[in-house]
Amino acid sequence: MWGRRLTTVLCDGDRRPGRRQGPRGPRGPRPAPRARLLPALRPFLLLPALLLGLLLGTAAPASAHAVLRSTDPADGSVLRTAPRHVTLTFTESVGLLTDSFRIYDPGNRRIRTGPAEHAPGRSDTARVSLPARLAGGTYTVAWRVVSADSHPVSGALTFSVGKRTAAPAAPPTDRGENQATTALHTIARYLAYLSLALLLGTAVFVAYCRPPATAHLRAPVLAAAAALLVSSAALYLLRAPYEEAAAPTTGFSLSALTHTATTRPGRLLLLRLALLLLAAAVMTVLRKRRVTLPRPAGLAAAMVLATALSLTWSASDHASAGIQVPAALVSSTLHLLAMAAWLGGLAALLWTLRRTPEPAGLPASVPARFSRLAFASVTVLVVTGVYQSWRGLGSWQALTDTTYGRTLLAKLAAVTALLLAAACSRTWTARLVGAAAATPARVPEPATGPPLPELPPAPPANPALPLLRRSVLLEATAGLLVLALTTLLTSTVPGRAATESVQAAAAPATGIPTASVTTIPFDTGAAGGQGKVQITLDPGRVGTNSVQAVIYGPDGGLSTVPDLRLTLTLPAQRVGPLDTKVTDRGGYWSAPSFTVPLPGTWTVKATVRVSDLDQVTVSAPVRVTR
Fold first, then answer.
1. Contact 568, 622 (CB under 8 A)
2. What CA–CA distance (Å, rounded) separates 364 from 354?
3. 256 within 8 A of 293, measured Cβ to Cβ
């Protein structure tokens, strides 16, 4: 029955072979298709708007799973001879773009380089060849790659050949995220999640809960399928601009469409579109021929389609990279299917409650069956959610110290509210079932013979039904919040990867000791008074050191300031402050000889004056070894 009912609702809607006369007389004429579709679409247009503001407010440049582990040359290093390559090493495999590297010489002119490539046998690296002869001075490297979980990541570093120099011209503009592309991509991802949940959840609700014909669920299913098709097509068009940080209109070019088809996220989006179009074609043929699939075939086809659609998400997100990838893919797919069954089924139940306002019009078995379905879905969500949280966090400390952990805490709070609302719905469902069981059956009066005794008056309307509607509405609202936070989690760097990156940056380098480089942000509170000062103590050991300082402006490029003073203090030994007496060397500051008398954790203080009236003092610890 489930397979036949599902294909009947999806193919033929709520039509029946004959038009029956009810106790209220014949049914009125069927409304026009447009009149039926517009009321069906209205909730699906309003529900996403509830959280659209949240998504736009938090639509920052997406953080990727891949995190930069090390660079060669090291950021801020001074080399005696020019390197032949620039190599970046990440925490996971990365994909390369046609313009992954942009390298600028000391005059801020872009230099010609070879194509970006991986180091031999290392898919977690990005490397570019440099010209044979590089002039002395400071070079800027702007880079951008795509992590294995489909999110782009970018950054910049500097290295110097011979000595550090200041850029005499305006600094190069790095490729910042295109705000329009980022916002559109975030909205499309959210709508894709929402429409998948509505499509699969409504199908499961129809097959298992068996709502009455008055629910009219065919139009919401078609609206969800259309929204999923449109949002997936939009994601494909935005894929290349999202990776390249370009304008949305560049996604319509033939080169962009072709490049997207060669990437794994692009191929998965094409697979999703093909599955949706294939399902639509099959349903159209079955409807025209009025063919109803038998139960086993209908259920098997629906399960295969749902699993395949879910895999197009899990194979392109966090589950596709990191540790235990096969187990993560299974867990992520089950998590998505359970989420769709619960939240999408919840929306279908809410729609059914709206379309059948009379207590007698909604069989008590419908919410009772959904209650059992929701309990099974929650069980799967808890098990898979615990595993995915452990895999993404890696430690308890990451729960509060990383953006991923804090977003996960917010999602857990929303899930708690969702479970409380679900418990209320379960309570009112039990009362509704109990009231239905206690209602006496009405016996029809015989056509002949003595009249039967009058039945007692009909019981008043069950107050549990309107309360059930309200609790389901609260449950749906909390579910939308959970869905939005889930979308944000998929575009946030997991805590495990962020912790690995910090540990890799803090680990001592092997081989030749490098200089101690400290970067301190500053803000004078005035317009244009933001930036950071990069202080290099070479070799960062007890004895004679050279001190260099470079000022970066608000745009991340090299900048000049009227005055800069650097001092070092060793609080544990009450030594200092020691003035380094750095002087302006034409755009950067240095002291060729400065003696550090003792090892330990020193505090370096930088007083930056950006104008005659605006200055600020900032500090940071710096480690000095023997």
1. yes
2. 15
3. no
